[in-house]
Amino acid sequence: MISQHKTVLIAGSTGDLGGRIARALVDEGATVRALIRRGTPLDKIVPLEQLGIHIVEVDYHNATEMKEACLDVSCVVSALSGLDEVIIETQTLLLEAAVAAGVPRFIPSDYSMDYTKLPVGSNRNLELRRDFMKILDQAPITATSVLNGAFADMLTGMAPIVLFSHKRILYWDDADQPMDFTTKDNVATFTAKIALDDHTPRFVYIAGDQISARQLAVLMSSLTGQRFRLFKAGSRNFLETLIKIARTCSKSTDDLYPAWQGMQYVHGMFSGLGKLEQINNNRYSGIQWTSAKQILTNHIRFSKESAS
């Protein structure tokens, strides 16, 4: 049962998704406490304060400060973003503080396709989440991960799927493979409700829409009045080869989202390996799930207005 009269601590609220989750928690009636690294610029803190969120500046490596920040909290929500140092090390410090303070529930920073099914080594960033999952599942705390597939802005040009200027829908291997897309706002709202719900499963799965490349071609043709054709970029094996080449040629190893990491995520989508097998959208009433049609309609309208 959801209870709005709770205090929820969120880490990562100065980021895009974290900020949306913090606002959603406020909208749900929760008392929100934002864990902020000491020295964070004011321009990132002020918008949170204006929402009535209590700011707690800490040194993540100070166990006493971290524990005090977690006292009297019903759930800790992580929206931290990064590589090993953040997803493994910093989240572990956050988890240890939550356990020390007696916090009953923890939501890790997952918000992705179903990484539990991906082959080892197939996605660096999601492999880190699986590594942290092992640490989390050994801790004396109840955990719930929110898995949501791809963020819906991938349909608007963030990923080479809908090629607007070429009137093509690019796909790999199988044009009929369903893919999960969810807006960040939908993820934030659902996560806020999970944070206020005392009885949630280990994993919840949400998707604003599930659509294949072939269906996207039909949809875009209908929305624009121009024919969008399918464009097969290659097989799964060919994409795997391209990923290896791109990773080998990459000059930096500490970028969060290098090109090859994006390719790894696309592989998980078009291969179906990260597909969400069950959807829990109906767990809570009142959420307006945004479809691929709505996302693309809004993008097309905005593009026309910007060009005029």
UniProtKB/TrEMBL annotation:
InterPro entries: NAD(P)-bd_dom_sf, NmrA-like, NmrA/Isoflavone_reductase-like, PCBER-like
Domain NmrA-like, first and last residues per copy: 5-241
Molecular-function annotations in GO: oxidoreductase activity
CDD domains according to UniProt: PCBER_SDR_a
Signal sequence annotation: none
A Pfam family assignment: NmrA
UniProt xrefs under Gene3D superfamilies: NAD(P)-binding Rossmann-like Domain, UDP-galactose 4-epimerase, domain 1
Protein name: Aromatic alcohol reductase
Species of origin: Paenibacillus kyungheensis
Keyword tags: NADP, Oxidoreductase
